[in-house]
């Protein structure tokens, strides 16, 4: 297959310890059996409320945290069976862009050094070559050469995210996980950063897993969208299909909050009751039943299967 990334039945459970002896008393099922596939050059949008497990999917895919079960293949290679050394070899090809790049930047390090250090770490360039490569990457990310000697606090939020992206792409990766990369930014700046992601994809041939709690953010960037709820994928479809014909009640609720540019059209806003339940003790049957506006008795008893209902359109709901 031409998949860059293939994920099969991925699970990540965190133990909760308690009592005098720190025994494991329960598990947080942060990711509870996710499968997805991302083709080269594709942008996959992973959407859901905070606490749905999206970030854990991203970190487990990059092997930044260990999985509990399942399989992650990157360009055909089983990531979890790679040795430390092979993993180090492949690391530069897959990178993470954070929500808050400021948190990962050393305040006393000049931006040029922060962006260039990975090149030296991986022996990709000599000291003499680093500056040129950093300048080239700054330009690709819409920053100017005068930024190279500045410190993080001298940058605006949008510029800092450009720096975060520059750090992620300096090693010429093929695959980026972007975890809520625009959520901390003003709406006007969000659009600029989304455009940057789109330009870089076209110019550098990048493939993305783009994580967001906001469907309107992934709408224009992503070709396929997956919707997560409480550790599970509830719907997955090509973007246009998902927006035109959302099938899962949760997707419909999320979509009802996305503004439509045409003021003569109106979407009825579906407001979900209650909060997302705890992943320690998720609801029985369909995990969404406590908040679903159309739940029936059957929904409390059995979990719906995640199945394909149209070409590339998957959904987990008894009523579909
Ligand atoms: Fe709602 Fe039942 Fe469908 Fe779950 S299975 S989304 S509770 S209708
Ligand atoms: Mg998160």
Automatic annotation (TrEMBL):
Gene3D superfamilies tied to this protein: P-loop containing nucleotide triphosphate hydrolases (3.40.50.300)
> Which UniProt keywords are present, listed alphabetically?
ATP-binding, Nucleotide-binding, Transport
Source domain of life is Bacteria
Q: Which GO terms describe its molecular function?
A: ATP binding
Give all residue intervals belonging to the ABC transporter domain. Answer: 5-255
UniProt lists the family membership as follows: Belongs to the ABC transporter superfamily.
PANTHER family in the cross-refs: ABC TRANSPORTER, ATP-BINDING PROTEIN, TRANSPORT ATP-BINDING PROTEIN
Query: Which NCBIfam families does the record associate with it?
Result: oligo_HPY, PRK11308.1
Its protein name is Dipeptide ABC transporter ATP-binding protein
